[in-house]
Amino acid sequence: MLSRPGECVALTHFFLQRKEAKPASMFNSRQELDKLEQAKRYRTRGQTFTAWQLQALCQANDDQLLTADASINQAISLARRHRQSDALVTALLIKAKLALASEHVDQAQTLLDEAQKAILPSDLTLMGDLQLLQATLLMYRHRYDEARQLLEQVRLQALQQDDALHQSWANFLLGDYYLQLQQDELALSHFLETLDVLGDRRQFYVKALAAKKTAAIYAALGQNDKALQFANQSTTEFEQLGNSPLLISSLLNLGRVTRAGNDANLALVYFFNALDLVKIQGDTEQMAALYLEIGQSYSWLGSYKEAQHYLDLARTGFERTHDLPHLADTLIQLGKMHLAQTEYGVALLRLERARIIAEQLDDVVKLMETHRLLAQLFEQSGNMAAALTHQKALHAYFQRATNVNRLLTQSLVQDNELQLQQERELSELGRRSEKLLQDRERFALLAAGLSLLSPLLLYGLLRNHIRSRRLWRQNQELQQSLLIEPLTGLPNWRKLMQRLPKEMARQQQRSEQWYLNEEQARPFDDKIYYLLLQVPFMSSLRERLGLAQSTEIQQQLGAYLRGRIHPRSRLYDLRDGQFIYAIPQKEVAELAPILTALERMFAEFPCQYELDRRIFTGIIGHPFLPKAPNALDDLRLGDILYLALAGARQLAEITQESAWVELVAVDCQQAAFFTGDVRSCCIQGIMKGLVKVNSSHKKQQIDWQALQPELPSTHQG
């Protein structure tokens, strides 16, 4: 719903094409009930309610608000027709959220009133959702005291009921409440409490939002280390959520916080990562915003050529979409850049256009910045009269902003001591503004001296930037080379151990879902087969042929194998003639053709020397125990795989041919049997029939007792 809303809409639409289940007409008394077949063709009434609600949420996440409203209207109509109060309340709450997203406040209030009449007092979950939405609506209407009281009530109720989710949302909305009242410290405490309440719970969305707000507050307070910490946490949570637009926004925020902490090089890494995601989505507005941030970062580093390129791209994008506020920001950054390079004519054109746009928008902050830069420009170019004019305009807009802030403070903050402190600070800023023109005259001489040093500083910055980029590239290349076996060029054991735990965790989750939801419906068919290959000729190449010839053969073999393996499979070189071949079960109808292809692949390897073309193969599938996937970790699974290879080598010694052995756990609850030394347990399982053995030759020829690990010797006193 959050990571791929378009696909979610298609799935729910496809599901709603099923016929509605009517038990009386679906079956007769002489037919045996085939529940699985009927479940594939029909939908129940409860499933229908859920599908319409889910489709509406997915459409809303895909920015299809009108179609989302139509879908939720279907859910409301069905709930009313069948008098399903729970489904009706849930649908009304979703419709109220959609109305708030479209800023239809009155409609949202009407829907919440209707939901409140239909809700049962005993349904605490829906009651909590209703109260949170009601508090949000009160803040939309600027009824802050009522909103705070309701949120405090929800928070206390959730605390008493040990309802972490509602408690965290209440804390988060209280943080938003205090932010709107410009009380950052109180807002910060509630956002931190939100993160503390959720802890390690998989509530990625609210945790990411709370971390993002916390980072913004710490950045405003000048605590860059903490701001960077929480911005990183926000990005991590959004990445686990899987929603690309939210992840892009978080990377953008992380880049800004990192740049504010004087690390523009690292900020560029985050901005370019976000740009890669935006290019996949094709969002031109976000692409232009990222071009602006990248250009600003390059300008901060003194890389003016790159800054000019990206700022021009941003300006073109904002002009195309008529985004005047961002266009003004881009023009201001271009003006700063040209001013830093003493290109006064181009800088004047950019800043004058930015000033005109800011006047159209009546944006006081942008007007103050443009007049400040214009005053600096005319002062540096020697036109003191024009500089004085812009300095007076800056002072006038500053006084206007001061008055607006004072009025807002009086209407929102009732703490007299804090208000007096703000008045004193604003008065001090006013006096400093009056002295600004005199200070600039004194600083002009100093700026002239510093301008002589600027080429050296620019050279140092550019040299440091180039060196850091080169070191970063070398580090990336080194990390990649560590994952490749140098002789064959195949992924090595480091690459395998980097991927195997994640792959096992993903398969374990699928196995658990199969066991909990569809255990009786079908066998588990989502394994990954791991084949451990022993290639005898690889282990004796150096002794037989020497270093030069063996190295050349291994390089040829690596290139040959990469072109022959299945496109959905992976091959790892473990050295000493051992390889692991991994392939999903869904790509393999039967193992026999795969094994035949592997034997043929090594048999057909073109080589002028005579080689032992046999291969010995041990095979297992993961999850090894589908009903208890967590019973075996990667090391214990590797022990079973090597046990299967040992059995195959026994067969090969007897038959003098290629051999393979597959170990398969039978379909029963046997996790407890595998407690202890896994090789011993597996051999006992083979003897007792809990582990099935498939092999290329007669499996009775394998002496499993000979493969039993030796027990440590004991000494009696």
Quick synopsis:
By secondary structure, this protein is mainly alpha-helical. It has helices at 5-15, 23-26, 35-41, 45-61, 65-82, 85-101, 105-118, 124-140, 144-160, 164-180, 184-198, 204-220, 224-241, 244-260, 264-281, 284-301, 304-321, 324-340, 344-361, 364-381, 384-412, 416-434, 436-481, 493-517, 536-539, 541-545, 547-564, 591-603, 634-655, 678-688, and strands at residues 19-20, 42-43, 528-534, 570-573, 578-584, 616-622, 659-665, 691-695.
Q: What's the tally of helices?
A: 30
Report mean pLDDT, rounded to a whole number: 78
Shape estimate: flat
> What percent of the residues sit in helical stretches (DSSP H or I)?
over 70%
The largest beta-sheet arranges its strands as 4-5-3-6-7-8
* Percent in strands: 5-15%
Family: Belongs to the Rap family.
Subcellular location: Cytoplasm
Protein name: Tetratricopeptide repeat protein
Keywords: Cytoplasm, Repeat, TPR repeat
Task: Tell me about this structure.
It contains 30 helices and 8 strands. The longest helix has 46 residues, at 436-481. The chain is mainly alpha-helical and 717 residues long. Helix 6 (85-101) runs antiparallel to helix 7 (105-118) and helix 17 packs antiparallel against helix 18.
